[in-house]
Amino acid sequence: MKALILNSGTGSRMGDITKTHPKCMTEIGGGETILSRQLRQLAEAGVQEAVITTGEWDQKIREACEGCGLKVTFVLNPRARETNYIYSMYLAREALKGSDILLMHGDLVFESRVLDDVMASPVSCMAVSSTLPLPEKDFKAVIKDGRIREIGINCFESALAAQPLYRFLEADFALWMESIAEFVEQGEVKCYAENALNRKTGDILLCPLDAGDKLCSEIDTPEDLNRVRGVLEEIRRRVVYMCFSTDVLHAAHLRLIQRAEQLGQVVIGILSDEAVASYKRFPLLTCRERMQMFRQVAGVSRVMEQKTLSYRENLEKLRPDFVVHGDNWKTDFQKPIREEVVRVLSGWGGELVEYPYTRDSRFSALEGRARSELALPDSRRSRLRNLISMKGLVTAMEAHSGITGLIVENTVVYEENGGAHQFDAMWISSLCDSTAKGKPDIELVDMSSRFRTIDDILEVTTKPIIFDGDTGGLPEHFVYTVRSLERMGVSMVIIEDKTGLKKNSLFGTEVQQTQDSIEHFCEKIRAGKKAQKTRDFMICARIESLILEAGMEDALTRAFAFTQAGADAIMIHSRRREPDEIFTFVERFRAQDAVTPLVVVPTSFNQVREEEWRKRGVNVVIYANQLTRAGFPAMQKAAETILRNHRGLECDDLLMPIRDIIRLIPEEN
Ligand code: SPV
Ligand code: MG
Q1: Helices 626-645 and 402-410 meet at what angle, rounded to 10?
Q2: How many domains, in total, are found in the chain?
Q3: pTM for the complete prediction?
Q4: What are the Cα distances from residue 353, in Å, to 41, 183, 199?
Q5: Which atom of ligand 1 lies nearest, measured to the CA of 542?
Q6: pLDDT of 535 over the 90 cut
Q7: Which residue range(s) make up the domain with 316?
Q8: Which of 149, 187, 309, 369 is the most exposed place for a label (fewest CB within 10 A)?
Q9: Is pLDDT of 257 > 90?
Q10: Average pLDDT of the chain?
Q11: 429 CB near ligand 1 (under 6 Å)
Q12: How many whole angstroms from 664 Cα to the centroid of ligand 1?
């Protein structure tokens, strides 16, 4: 699209103001002239070429356009004094061929929102206002059946105030130009070019584009100038709010901020770490770092934290005139958040302005890179501690293979209020790892094989890992396990205070199991803590006293002894269907220790919601075996169905479509 700016006039009604320069070079505040503002707005809107018609001030206008960033063609009208711009347009006809035309008078000042709307129009259009009174002397557009039939000064019937800002499709502009040529060639050079346009409104579908109360105004007199300056000042004082969660700034963000800046002072809300992690991924930069990054961006006047996905709190604090956002949230999970923004803004007449969302493969590649950084051992290992301190309560879901790891990694549920929920971490259960290999959960699967499982999961995920280390084996062996896990990027190992042939805890006292002595287990914890190299790695001591019916006092005595020995967290287990003994333990432990993270595995007492665990002082909830228990019966059923029917057809309804499997496992490139 090419812009056509008509600047051949003398601006005689401006008095002394236009004695030394053309009207388009009149200052309008903010260090800008009418012309420099138009050129900036055009460049920001992506226009690359402009044709400017000039008259007496040709040289000055050429100089004023230097370095504007647009390719400008100047067309001098040597008869500017005795002709109207119909003649300038006629002279510019060759330069205007071959593209859509965005036409504006050189004395027109408009908000970028109006320009954006005009440029986005799929049909030829002219800016009008349905809210402004009809002007006595300026252009009006007569509208019938939704299209403009006539433009002129003297038509008042069925008319709206109109401004000389048009977008023409190439073919429509050619028709107008044809009519202009006929006028000029018959010597009619003093009338408006719109007279020639009026002859073609039957053939050109020219639609009114309603700018409403938005600024779009010609400056003809010093009074106009004062009024427009006042409006621009008010626009500069308006507050525009935007919220960002990104930790990688790219061109699309900067473009959006640039557009927002045209609406007023830009205030950026930075989404808290917790809010980002809840719906997306763990941010690579902390909220403070992201705030600092946005403070450096030109055009940003203030940066503040936005604690929740909901904008309400910040909007009520700021009462901004505008909220700016990409239009993607009209349909995605953020729809309820958007609706709330519209509702809250309507409280003081604020407006939501949406721009087309940019889906660019270069930006998705950046996101891919950010994700792979989260998978690096150092970054992943430390994240469990961070999440616990950030969220208070984290959830971990069992994974025993690459595919179950991907399910834990990618499953997100969106809530009605626009929030989202996903697992924070993965639990590599000894029960499920053994089951997947068809072996009993008795420490039979050796460490090399367990590490292989970890590696499969590490390769395709980014979330932190909690490893079920069973009893940890001999202290002399445990130190090697700690170092290996640490090196791989595992965040926490949980070892249970049992000894000898370990059986799964859910058997309880139905099988022979022996609890380790406090002294010996403390020795193992101390050895592990001494062996670890990083500050981040966590050793969690798991207490089996309730499982083995050794009593609450024993459980508590052990918990305090194990934390004394250096355990970073305590896991308390029970196989009762009621959670009361776990509640009692948590309450009594918290009475003496407010900080050591507490871990629970609510497999049998699964009626308690996460929020209640949080309130009671639990920090990690592990869903220890649900994926395994969901998956194997489904496989068994599929196998039986095929056996019964001697073919695969009947089994189809039980199966995940192949295309979903393919989507679950994206190919790396
Ligand atoms: C596991 O998942 O392997 C556990 C938890 O250790 S439990 O099965 O409840 O003992
Ligand atoms: Mg286990």
Answers
A1: 120
A2: 4
A3: 0.78
A4: 17, 42, 37
A5: 6
A6: yes
A7: 238-362
A8: 187
A9: yes
A10: 94
A11: yes
A12: 27
